[in-house]
């Protein structure tokens, strides 16, 4: 199935994942939260979150499809409930765009800034951000450095 660009009357096909699809949302300050991907298309989707994010918040969104991981810059849109909030992609690498198109069946060109196939993500506020693999390596290093927290009572008493 082919689809016209987003400016025409044809919307990008929406797909509901058949399985639970966790998503990691990273903010510009480095904090992150998790959510569940409810609907996806080549231009955006719908997330289930514990609480809605502020309209217009720019995030990095990472989730796994049957064709591999997708990492892209996105912008949060108006929440439709306390737990569901749509988003739109603002930048995707060439490979991530292709993985999304393979999942959704839409083979048209998108009207969003897509960087060259260098695996870099453009961020309109900060310029070029880390490559996908560097981002994953940083995440793994941060997780490895963070030791599990001891219960509050043990920390207050100074016991191990």
Account of the 3D structure:
By secondary structure, the protein is an alpha+beta fold. It has a single domain, classed as Beta Barrel (Thrombin, subunit H). Helix content is 19%, strand content 34%. β1 (22-27) and β2 form a beta hairpin. It starts with 21 loop residues before the first strand and ends with a helix.
Q: Helices and strands in order, then pairings?
A:
Layout: E1 22-27, E2 32-40, E3 44-48, E4 58-65, E5 68-76, E6 84-92, H1 94-104, E7 120-123, E8 127-131, H2 132-145, H3 152-157
Antiparallel strand pairs: 1-2, 1-4, 2-3, 3-6, 4-5, 5-6, 7-8
Strand order of the largest sheet: 1-2-3-6-5-4
Low-pLDDT segments, ≥5 res = 1-8, 110-119, 123-128
The rounded Rg comes to 18 Å
- CATH class wording: Mainly Beta
Within CATH, the superfamily carries the name predicted glycosyltransferase like domains
Question: How does the major sheet shape up?
Answer: 6 strands, antiparallel, barrel
Relevant terms:
single chain; 160 residues; alpha+beta; Thrombin, subunit H; 6-stranded antiparallel beta barrel; two-stranded antiparallel ribbon; 8 strands; globular
Entry summary:
This protein has helices spanning 94-104, 132-145, 152-157, and strands at 22-27, 32-40, 44-48, 58-65, 68-76, 84-92, 120-123, 127-131. By secondary structure, the protein is an alpha+beta fold.
């Amino acid at each position: 199935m082919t689809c016209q660009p987003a400016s025409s009357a044809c919307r990008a096909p929406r797909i509901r994942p058949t399985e639970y699809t966790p998503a990691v949302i990273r903010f510009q300050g480095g904090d992150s939260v998790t959510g569940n991907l409810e609907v996806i298309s080549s231009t955006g989707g719908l997330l289930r979150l514990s609480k809605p994010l502020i309209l217009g918040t720019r995030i990095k969104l990472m989730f796994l499809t049957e064709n591999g991981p997708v990492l892209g810059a996105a912008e949060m849109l108006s929440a439709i409930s306390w737990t569901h909030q749509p988003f739109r992609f603002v930048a995707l690498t060439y490979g991530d765009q292709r993985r999304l198109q393979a999942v959704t069946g839409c083979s048209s060109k998108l009207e969003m800034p897509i960087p060259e196939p260098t695996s870099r993500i453009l961020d309109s506020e900060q310029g070029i951000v880390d490559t996908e693999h560097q981002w994953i390596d940083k995440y793994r290093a941060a997780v490895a450095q963070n030791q599990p927290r001891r219960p509050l009572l043990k920390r207050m008493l100074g016991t191990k």
